[in-house]
């Protein structure tokens, strides 16, 4: 009798453990199918898919990697740069799997893991919007499950995509990107620059005036006095390896063409220098999260304004974060991001 009672109690505890864990899709033995790739075509590659992209200059392949299975939540990650890589987002592995959020790493065309036609006629927002749309179709994402996340340049791309294809979206996340390149430059010039020691700012400005961007001194000054305060608020020697790799793998050709050579806004002949969609945000009806940070290269007040422009917008401020606030204000960043995704998924966004 005693042994039967123990077995019964064990059965009840297992039953309620399965019942109460709402983040797990139960099977008969309470094992989640989130990481089960056995019925997927990409099991052989561990979730990696090389997706063909049709362009006026031919067909090229872009690299994507899917993590997890969740038919209701699929988050496509758009990296910055332009010319950056998915490596800026490696820390997502520490948070999204626990919440059973499916997410897709993606290197845009001419980025490190994808094909590199090196054709500047393809380096336009119009091209990249259509590239994202082809990736979406290939991965079977639609308005029932498709969340588009973009950080920095990826935020520009996400906004441009939403302006054309919002009907395909379930949720939109804009991280660390303003809606106006001129305003971004103005913030760097009038607010961030003067925070530097005057002699350091003077030397940087002299190097820029001489267009001496390849000078190691220019890189040294920015890394020491700008990047460690506004890009990632950690000593350089403590930067995660994934961030080091992302910078090592950055494609300088596309970066200089679209962003320009200066780190104080967009300068020179940068094609994004006049980009501005501020007056169009109100037309995007997709539930949207805007993530800003106190020490970012982007003005957090402007980003809060953006959130209020979106009809279904929400603002998240990372008080201790900078441009890569997914690292230097990580807990607040992911708590707010995951909460937004769940609220949209549950239909409780207010």
From TrEMBL:
Keywords: Hydrolase. Residues 75-329 form the AB hydrolase-1 domain. Transmembrane segments: none annotated. Pfam families: Abhydrolase_1 (PF00561). One of its GO terms (cellular component) is membrane. Belongs to the peptidase S33 family. This is Proline iminopeptidase. It comes from Bizionia arctica.
């Amino acid at each position: 009798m005693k042994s039967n009672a123990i077995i019964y109690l064990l059965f009840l505890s297992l039953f309620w453990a399965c019942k109460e864990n709402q983040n797990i899709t139960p099977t008969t033995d309470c094992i989640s199918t989130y990481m089960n790739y056995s019925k997927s075509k990409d099991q052989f590659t561990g979730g990696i898919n090389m997706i063909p992209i049709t362009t006026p200059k031919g067909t090229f392949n872009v690299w994507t990697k899917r993590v997890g299975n969740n038919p209701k939540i699929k988050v496509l990650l758009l990296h910055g740069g332009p010319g950056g890589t998915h490596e800026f987002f490696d820390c997502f592995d520490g948070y999204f799997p626990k919440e059973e959020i499916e997410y897709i790493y993606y290197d845009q065309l001419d980025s490190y893991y994808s094909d590199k036609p090196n054709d500047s006629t393809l380096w336009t927002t119009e091209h990249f919007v259509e590239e994202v749309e082809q990736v979406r179709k290939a991965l079977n994402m639609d308005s029932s499950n498709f969340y588009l996340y973009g950080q920095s340049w990826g935020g520009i791309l996400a906004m441009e995509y939403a302006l054309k294809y919002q009907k395909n979206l379930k949720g939109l996340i804009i991280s660390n990107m303003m809606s106006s390149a001129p305003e971004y430059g103005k913030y760097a010039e009038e607010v961030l620059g003067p925070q530097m020691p005057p002699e350091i700012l003077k030397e940087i400005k002299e190097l820029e005036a001489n267009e001496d961007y390849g000078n190691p001194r220019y890189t040294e000054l920015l890394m020491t006095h700008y990047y460690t305060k506004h890009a990632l608020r950690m000593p350089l020697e403590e930067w995660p390896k994934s961030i080091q790799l992302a910078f090592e793998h950055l494609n300088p050709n596309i970066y200089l063409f679209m962003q320009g050579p200066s780190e104080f806004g967009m300068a020179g002949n940068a094609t994004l220098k006049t980009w501005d969609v501020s007056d169009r945000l109100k037309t995007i009806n997709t539930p949207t999260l805007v993530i800003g940070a106190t020490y970012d290269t982007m003005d957090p007040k402007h980003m809060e304004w953006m959130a209020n422009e979106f009809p279904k917008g929400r603002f998240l401020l990372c008080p201790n974060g900078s441009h890569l606030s997914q690292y230097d204000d990580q807990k607040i960043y992911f708590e707010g991001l995951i909460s937004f995704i769940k609220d949209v998924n549950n239909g409780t966004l207010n």
